[in-house]
Amino acid sequence: xRIIHTAxxxxxxWRFVKPSKTYFFFSLLTAVLYHFGIFLAAIFIAxxxxxxxxxxxxxxxxxxxxxxxAGLVAYIAMHFKYYIYAVMSREPYIRIxxxxxxxxxxxxxYIQRHSRTKVLNVIHExxxxxxxxxxxxxxxxxxxxxxxVSLITLTKIDLFAGLLAIGALIFILVIQEIVNSRVAxxxxxxxxxxxxxxxxxxxxxxxxxxxxxxQKTLQDCNSNLISKGKNYYKEKIPRHSWLSIxxxxxxxxxxxxxxxxxxxxxxxxxxEQLTVSEFIIIIPLLAQAFASSISFYSVTDKIKxxxxxxxxxxxxxxx
Length: 319
Description:
The protein has helices at residues 2-17, 21-53, 57-106, 110-113, 116-140, 143-157, 159-209, 215-270, 276-318.
């Protein structure tokens, strides 16, 4: 159900922004080449290490060269992806910006009904963040494929390690969904606090430069600005706490599971149920599985944040 809901939200974003399908396809293609290039380079290095342990030096040289080639393909693809991102984001940004220009030009009371600072903030910050989400989705949508490949290969090499990894990933998914919801909630509050603070700054400047220059009015405007500033920093504490959990603690939990599974594999080696060469190949697969899961799970958070920006833009255009 969560996947369906996320897909619907992304569909809403797509219909609103209307990015180029062609550029999105090539952004997706270069992301696939990058991720698989990095993934294969790590596997080839592990294979080279296994060949070295076995004393096959010529094969070791070959696998090292192949690994370097895979890495080269990956970074060439990423270079082109940066260019595609710049081109893909240009047209939607200009189109949404023009909607605001048309609104301001056709509605004589628009600026009077809205804080000028808030409008500028929405036009720049929210539109940029909204347009950027399609590049992020294209970059991360390949992660499930890598995750699936890693788990299948891992399970074929060692069934127990594969099942343990799947169980750990399900646990991380549940935790990350809770964390993403809290981050999205505090992100929305953060944007409101930013708007209120910028509006207070605008009002103070208007009072100082306009006709309302009496001392009491200026003091009231200043007090209002101080109050909004305090609210902004008060909200910043829980927001950054949840961001820390999202950015770092989830990765630590994933790495902890990886260490525990690795310890289990060492136990299996000590009982001659697994070879050292297999262990060397399993480790990058395990690392890729957890990295891909964390990265892909973050897509829901990015889409939730983008929806906040979309709603702010739509509210600014329709009110």
